[in-house]
Amino acid sequence: MSRTVTRRSVGFLATAAALAGGVVGTSATAQAAYEDPTMDLPRQVSPYPGVGPHRPYVQEIPIGGVVPLKNEALLNRTEHGWLFRAGQQNTNLTMTYTDGRLHFVDTGTASWKWLPKGCTKLDVPLGVGASCVIGTKFTDAAPMLVEVWPRLGNDVMDSTALPALFDVSYLGDKGDDVAYLGAGDDFFNGAQDADSGYGGDGRDWIRTGLADDFIDGGADGDYLVGVDSNDTIYGGSGDDNLYGIDGDDKLFAGDGNDRISCGNGTDEATLKSTDKALACETTSNS
């Protein structure tokens, strides 16, 4: 898709510039600890076996109690990896795996609020960048968990360059958010406004929210949920589960043996003879 190609090009250019500049020293505040109550929100794996990150992750953030991050971002180490947070601006985050380290480049954020030990600043031409260590305990079979929580902006998050060594969980918020997922088993919660989620090569769980959303499951067997309003959902390849829930939805089965549940509203499903559909007002063959 043209949007995807353009987005990736921008992300890789920013990351390439960061690598050319090299790694510089840690921020002045990096020697102190920075913890807050949202670090301890409940974490759990997906209720749908085999879908989404392997390790427990936060699946939604209650209103209130969040860290003020106007034009700022911060990173925290968690039990199973890293947590990136930003807020009140249009986050434009690209993550890459380079020379055994995880790189974050956010061209939409002005400065770091805090960086922990294990992460160093990257010298980037626009926004903020950081390079973080990856523990030796993480493997493709037991991936590192990377949680990303941007808030209150039209955010773009891209982990398409990450291999299966990483599972990524994105929590959207207010704003029209876009998430591009990588090779791991990932999660995207769009929450509010008009969001778009593009699955990668793993078994992803993509759940959008209150407005007219777009979902493309990508490769492998995914769990794709439109929730409210008039959503468009593509299964992609693999044996997928597609759920329209409320609103007038359009659901498209892809390759594989898919299950479609249209839900409430006046829905349209396009599927093959090997697929199964439930509660769809209109069906047609693909």
UniProtKB/TrEMBL annotation:
Gene3D superfamilies, per database record: Serralysin-like metalloprotease, C-terminal
SUPFAM superfamilies assigned to the protein according to its UniProt record, in alphabetical order: beta-Roll (SSF51120)
The organism's place on the tree of life at top rank: Bacteria
InterPro entries: Hemolysn_Ca-bd, Serralysin-like_metalloprot_C, TAT_signal
Keywords carried by this UniProt record: Signal
Lineage: Bacteria, Bacillati, Actinomycetota, Actinomycetes, Propionibacteriales
GO molecular function, one term: calcium ion binding
Keyword Lyase in annotation: no
Signal peptide (residue range): 1-32
Pfam family, one: HemolysinCabind
Protein name: Alkaline phosphatase
